[in-house]
Glucokinase
Amino acid sequence: MSLIDLSKQVALGIDIGGTNTKFGVVNHRGEVLEKGNLRTDEYEKVEDFIDALYEQVKPLIEKYGTETNFDGIGVGAPNANYYKGTIEQAPNLPWKGLVPFSELMNAKFNLPCTITNDANAAALGEMLFGAARGMKDFIMITLGTGVGSGIISNGSLIYGHDGFAGELGHTIVKPGGRKHWSTGSEGSLEAYASATGIAITAKKMRAEFPESMLSQYPEESINSKTVHECALKGDLIAIEVFRYTGQKLGEALANFVMFSSPEAILLFGGVIKAGDFILKPAKLHMERNLLPIFRNKVKLVFSELDEADAAILGASALVWEK
Amino acid sequence: MSLIDLSKQVALGIDIGGTNTKFGVVNHRGEVLEKGNLRTDEYEKVEDFIDALYEQVKPLIEKYGTETNFDGIGVGAPNANYYKGTIEQAPNLPWKGLVPFSELMNAKFNLPCTITNDANAAALGEMLFGAARGMKDFIMITLGTGVGSGIISNGSLIYGHDGFAGELGHTIVKPGGRKHWSTGSEGSLEAYASATGIAITAKKMRAEFPESMLSQYPEESINSKTVHECALKGDLIAIEVFRYTGQKLGEALANFVMFSSPEAILLFGGVIKAGDFILKPAKLHMERNLLPIFRNKVKLVFSELDEADAAILGASALVWEK
């Protein structure tokens, strides 16, 4: 039997978040065959984390036959460096400094391990299995607690000189604007368009306009979900919170388009639940700030991947993209 | 004789500007063996322009032996589309609408003709023959009458989905800022960092601070050259004109770095004659707006190519980059 049975080729996709780590066995069709998870924050030492992960994954490796059926392991993690296989100074992870993650995984699993940042992994997932199938030039923007991005140009991820390209959440959309709670930069996209940024905008607007329905919620419960509830009920202030967010996002997107001229921009993450409340002003302000040659060309679309699986699919896609 | 003598392989590089067109025969070492030029604006019909060009180039083709010694023709032109071989709606050229330039050239010269915008050509020239030799990730910014750009990522030009990627001069650095004289956009990099933008800033500052040496010049002679003269004599207002320009440039560069994480940013064009007056504030504000992981990594350098030859070299580089 020298023929390769593609349906039996699988990869392990791992998505490492600050609190939880999700993993899954994925096949070439982008089907998640098995899933599991463990707490990230329970392991102060990365070696202990990898040991615990191995214990959980081993039965899956055995179930899917010999380890040779596994093409490899793909990992999406914050501050991951594709070139070096390291996780570097990740503020939300328990492991500090420079972690040689790929090397440690390789030693434990005896399988090739490729690593990249979570938004890059999501972009690959969309290209192989999601809304960007068949596209060679697109930008993925993840709008969650933070704002991440993955840029595909001519069919490949842009990693840049040092592996850290694609930090679009930290580009400045309003010089001298809102100070970022963590980086200290002023006026970054993340300061406005992340869930964290939306909560800040909403709290400010609520203080300024006490007639808003937002005033009926306790301060600490103000987040993009409660703003969405109020917007759905027609609260003009809640709608304005999203309009302003969409404007800042759209202005940033125009700049991104004039950089790499993508076929589409894919939006992903919890914030996009606000739907047209954000999408319409984003589209308006993107188009308004574009040179005429770019106008009405770039699709602005939501991710098609199931959010629970997307990160795992994206990480596994890393194995086959190489 | 089946061996290919590389020293005999040459390409024709053509740089089409609004007023003049320069061309040259270039060898693999980046030596311009022959040069020539003709007026662009004297030919209302593109076919007449190509005929006139052919008449001038024909003797060179004959001099360098049979036409087979020519690997091809590379053209840098405003609003040129690499994928389609067209020049589209170029505001500064006499030929309006959509010009199938490569096709027309090919028919006349019987040589493959590749075309791209002038800043992309300059970036290729730097990669093959200039300050970016050996680099795989860098951004070229041309600071002339306008602001152009060429982005090299992983050793290749970023063309984007439609061939128009890399319009960084039109990215917005100050939302709601200075209105662009031609595009109408508000707060673009070109509105501040081009020679045209610098003249606007200088005229404003001169009106506001009549004690400046700039007041000794007639209004119409205020340009980046006269500002430079005053700055060299220590005029604080002239120095401030460049500082402000450098700040806007630096803020824009920070965003570009967080997009594609280049090894270097190359600056080229008439404006860089202002040297440190612009470079130092640009560097300061670039670093200040970068995420820590990008700081003190990106070289900010001036082009090494002779300005008179750079455009021709860049255009010829297009032939060998394919």
Notes: Chain A has two domains: 6-125+308-321, 134-302. Residues 6-125+308-321 of chain A form a domain with the Nucleotidyltransferase; domain 5 fold (CATH 3.30.420.40). Chain A touches chain B at residues 79, 88-89, 136-137, 151, 153-154, 156, 158-168, 170-175, 183, 185, 251, 254-256, 258-263, 289, 291-294, 297 (CB under 8 Å). Chain A has a mean pLDDT of 92.
